[in-house]
Amino acid sequence: MTAAPEHSDAEAGSTLTDSALKPRGIFDPDLLAACISCGFCLPVCPTYAQTKAEADSPRGRITLMRALDEGRLDVDDSTLQEQAGRCLGCRRCETVCPAGVKYGELLEQWRDHQWRGRHTPPVAAALRAGVRVTPALTAGGLVRGAARPTGAADPQRPHLMLGCLERSLFPKVSKAVLKFLPDADVPAGQGCCGALHAHNGGSVEAAEMAQRLGATMPGTIVSTSGGCAAYLAHQLGHERVKEISEFLLARWEADPGSMPSLRRLTVDGRPARVGLKDSCQLRNGLGVIQPPRALIAKVADYVELPSAGVCCGGAGTYSMLQPEMSKAVLDPTLVQAREADLDYLVALNVVCTRQLQAGVKRARLRVKVVHLVELLELALPD
Ligand code: SF4
Ligand code: SF4
Predict the structure, then answer these.
(1) Which residues contact 25 (CB under 8 A, 6 or more apart)?
(2) What does the pLDDT look like over 28-79, one tens digit per residue?
(3) 219 and 290: one domain?
(4) In terms of domains, do 279 and 310 share one?
(5) Exposure pattern of 32-64 as b/e (b: 16+ CB <10 Å)?
(6) Is 1 inside any structural domain?
(7) Is any atom of ligand 1 closer than 6 Å to the C-beta of 103?
(8) What pTM does this model have?
(9) CB 314 within 8 A of CB 352
(10) Quick one: which ligand is closest to 4's CA?
(11) Which of 36, 121, 276, 347 has the most CB atoms around it within 10 Å of its CB?
C-alpha cells in the first residue's frame, strides 16, 4: 500500500489550536470522530492527485469539518467555502478507509449546513429547483422520445424509473431499456429520487422525495442511472432498488431464456473495443462493479481502462461549479481511451454521459460515448 502522506491541521485550513470546544451539532459526532487521520485515503482521491494539497484530500476536508463543528472556523471561512464545493463526492476514499469512515454522509451533512441561504452556489440552487418541475420534465421527455407511462403500477412487475435529467437529456435510453425489460411498468407521475438534492445541500428534502417516489412504485424499482439507483437504494433498501446492469445480469443468469439473442458487435470487420467509466455512487456506494463489465463482454471485447473506477469529474453539478478541476480529473481517461483505441466508451449515469461526451469532443477522439443499454441495443438482431 502507498505510504500515507503526513499532514498538519494548518495545511488543511484549520487556524486555531485543538482546544476542546463545544460541538455545534452540524455533524453526526460518531461519523466525525471515526477518522483516525491515517491518510490511506489520500492516494485514491482524485482532487488530491491533482494538487497534492492536504485541503484537497479527504483527511484535510474532515479536519475542516471538525474545525467548523467545533467553532474554530466560521461558515464564511474561504477554505471551507471552497472545499465544500471542491470535493467530487465520489466516495472513492471510503473504499480504502480502514476505519470505515462514511465520508459521503459527512459531505451531505457539511453541505446541508454550508450551502444554505446566500452560501448556496447558484448552480446547485437552480438544479434543485429545476428537477422539482417533474410534469414539465416528463412532457419534454415525451416530446423527445422517452418511454411513455404505462399507467398504474403493478407491484408484481419491475418498475422502470425515469430519471429527471435522463428523461429530458437522453430520453431514448428509457426506450432502449424497455427492449430488455418487456414486462416493466413505467409508472406515471414519477418525481425525482432526491439524489441531486442530497448531494447539493438538501438532504432532508431529498429523503422525502425518495420516499414519495418509492410510494409511486411499489415493488422492485429499476434505474438506468447509477447515481439515482445508489441513492434510492440507500433510502429504500438495495433489495428493492436495482441499477439496470445488476438487474439484467441477475435475471439473465437465473433464467437464460429471458435473455434476448445478442450478436457480437464489430467495427470495420473486427470485434468492437469497448471501455467503461463506472458511476462513482454505484461502484463506491452500492458496490456494483462486475455486472456492467459482464454485460459489455457479452457483445464486445471489453477493455478495462486504468481509470475506469475513478470519477469522470461530472459529479452532479461539479462540472459547472469547478470546471477546471472537472476537466483535469477527466483528462487521464481521455488519454487512456485514445491509447486503448476504443470504439465505444460506456457510461452508467446521465451526468457521466454528458461529461464524457464533452471531453471526447474537446480531445477530438473518435470513441463514441453511449449508455450501457444503448450498446446492448446495437447488438439486438435487425
Ligand atoms: S469523495 Fe472523492 S473527491 Fe471527495 S474526498 Fe473522497 S475521494 Fe476525494
Ligand atoms: S478518512 Fe479513513 S483513510 Fe482517510 S484519513 Fe480518515 S481514517 Fe484514514
Answers:
(1) 69
(2) 999 999 999 999 999 999 999 999 999 999 999 999 999 999 999 988 888 9
(3) no
(4) yes
(5) bebbeeebbbbbbbbbbbeeeebbbbbbbbbbb
(6) no
(7) yes
(8) 0.87
(9) yes
(10) 2
(11) 347
